[in-house]
């Protein structure tokens, strides 16, 4: 589309009209002048080819900053720093401190959208408020005005303004300081969230890592999809595996990837389902709601089964319609599985914005199948003992090593032992600075050999007690813990069989 510089083209016309009006005022009879003055505004508006929109900093309620104003402020940030001569600076902390620039009062910048030029200007209303104070208080109210030619009315009022608001909100989300919330009883407290974990540093098979990242990114961009299919914009993840395999680290990496806040929900300190509901309703959009060690947080299985027996009806048929029995019985009762399931399924259908719900557990088999069925926990992710591929990620992070003569030995031992990434990482920590890579790798080999020997002795001892062979006993032991020989869960082993 041809770009039209409307301001340059229309300038001489406006100047001529104003000159004629001044001449007319000088020589015109009094009554006629009055008449013209009365109608001059209307005439001027008729000929004035531009439309002007004002966006005030405060809405009707003087204490509420207008969302549109702050979105525009963010949107204009980059063009302001390029074009305006006078700028205002503010510091934003998001991991590191960074400067955010916006245009100063009574500055102007131009913007271009689909070939149409527009002009943004900043202004300020000053008024003196009535006050009993010795010094008069000055009330400042900022505003932005947008000016554009009236022939672009539809484009600007429709597409352009929603583009500005969307872009402005996205910039605001990027610059904001993220928070880690924890609950103490029914109140959330927060600290600044600055965890360094990222998917680059997570030790895991590259293919699996990519699949998780793709899933997260697809979810975060799927607002229209969820609206179209009539589902709440939420996704449940269940992270399971032995202690020290990176479940908590992965949650931090997920939040960092999507730029989300984290709500770490401590269920044991929540008194009842009413408190749980309050806490969950208070969570904001673009957040990860985490319930760690779900199997330890509640006697989930027992309470659910007991409740089922008492009520004699299926709990999970339509959880949205039911009021948890505990809420009606007693305010002192504990959080129950049915309460938790109700909220996961139903509550956020009424809340705007996207949320991830992440459960972690060391014992998958202890969880009630109703809690982890697809739809509630959409994606089950196993974090397991350190594989050779995972070791290579750790070695790259900790030692900046791509390969080494000792890798072959490590590959062999890692395949035969169950060592968590946390333990492997501990061996790779340099003992002196600068570290000696060979010393670290030899330390790891010694650790792996010891773990292998310990496992062999343990299996022998248990076999002696049971009167079976060490190999059979090791297999039995794996099944009891829910883990197979190679560190995979029983469920996974079955899938593989
Ligand atoms: N897969 C991994 N990738 C990178 N680092 C890891 C990984 N697993 C564990 N670690 C390291 O080990 C430490 C402990 O890991 P983390 O707390 O994430 O384990 P977890 O699975 O949550 O354990 P738990 O079940 O006891 O809560 C982390 O600080 C991290 O540095
Ligand atoms: Mg953890």
Question: How would you characterize the overall build of this protein?
Answer:
The protein is α/β, with parallel strands linked by helices and 497 residues long. The protein is built from 20 helices and 13 strands. The two termini are 62 Å apart. Residues 301-333 and 480-497 have low confidence and may be disordered. The chain binds adenosine-5'-triphosphate and magnesium ion. Residues 247-248, 292, 360 line the site of magnesium ion. Magnesium ion (MG) binds at residues 247-248, 292, 360. Its cofactor is Mg(2+). Keywords: ATP-binding, Hydrolase, Magnesium, Nucleotide-binding. Residues 305-330, 455-497 are annotated as: Disordered.
Any descriptors?
single chain; 497 residues; alpha/beta; seven-stranded mixed beta sheet; four-stranded antiparallel beta sheet; 13 strands; binds adenosine-5'-triphosphate; binds magnesium ion; magnesium
């Amino acid at each position: 589309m041809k770009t039209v510089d409307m301001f340059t083209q229309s300038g001489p016309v406006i100047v001529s009209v104003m000159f004629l009006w001044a001449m007319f005022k000088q020589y015109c009879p009094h009554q006629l002048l009055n008449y013209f003055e009365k109608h001059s505004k209307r005439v001027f508006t008729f000929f004035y080819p531009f439309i002007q929109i004002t966006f005030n900093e405060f809405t009707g309620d003087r204490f509420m900053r207008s969302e549109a104003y702050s979105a525009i402020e963010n949107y204009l940030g980059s063009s302001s720093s390029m074009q305006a001569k006078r700028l205002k600076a503010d510091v934003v902390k998001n991991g590191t401190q960074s400067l955010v620039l916006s245009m100063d009062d009574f500055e102007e910048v131009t913007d271009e959208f689909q070939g149409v030029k527009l002009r943004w200007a900043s202004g300020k209303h000053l008024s003196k408020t009535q006050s009993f104070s010795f010094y008069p208080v000055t009330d400042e109210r900022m505003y932005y005005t947008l000016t554009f030619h009236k022939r672009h009315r539809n484009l600007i009022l429709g597409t352009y303004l929603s583009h500005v608001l969307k872009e402005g909100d996205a910039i605001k989300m990027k610059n904001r300081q993220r928070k880690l919330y924890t609950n103490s009883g029914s109140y959330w407290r927060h600290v600044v969230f600055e965890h360094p974990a990222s998917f680059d540093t997570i030790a895991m098979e590259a293919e699996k890592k990519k699949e998780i990242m793709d899933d997260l990114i697809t979810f975060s961009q799927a607002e229209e999809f969820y609206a179209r299919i009539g589902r709440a914009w939420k996704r449940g993840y269940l992270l399971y595996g032995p202690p020290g395999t990176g479940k908590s680290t992965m949650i931090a990496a997920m939040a960092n990837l999507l730029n989300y806040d984290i709500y770490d929900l401590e269920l044991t300190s929540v008194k009842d389902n009413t408190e749980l509901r309050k806490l969950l309703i208070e969570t904001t959009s673009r957040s990860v709601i985490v319930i760690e060690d779900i199997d330890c947080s509640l006697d989930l299985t027992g309470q659910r089964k007991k409740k089922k027996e008492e009520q004699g009806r299926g709990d999970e048929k339509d959880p949205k319609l039911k009021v948890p029995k505990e809420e009606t019985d007693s305010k002192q009762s504990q959080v129950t599985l049915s309460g938790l399931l109700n909220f996961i399924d139903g509550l956020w259908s009424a809340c705007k914005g996207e949320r991830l719900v992440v459960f972690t557990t060391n014992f998958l088999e202890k969880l009630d199948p109703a809690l982890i069925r697809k739809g509630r926990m959409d994606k089950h992710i196993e974090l397991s003992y350190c594989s050779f591929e995972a070791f290579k990620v750790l070695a790259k992070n900790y030692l900046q090593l791509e390969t080494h003569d000792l890798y072959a030995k490590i590959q062999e031992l890692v395949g035969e032992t169950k060592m968590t990434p946390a333990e492997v990482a501990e061996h790779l920590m340099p003992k002196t600075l600068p570290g000696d890579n060979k010393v670290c790798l030899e330390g790891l080999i010694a650790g792996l050999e010891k773990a292998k020997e310990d496992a062999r002795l343990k299996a022998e001892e248990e076999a002696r007690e049971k009167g079976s062979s060490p190999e059979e006993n090791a297999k039995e032991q794996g099944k009891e813990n829910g883990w197979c020989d190679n560190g995979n869960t029983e469920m996974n082993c079955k899938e593989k069989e």
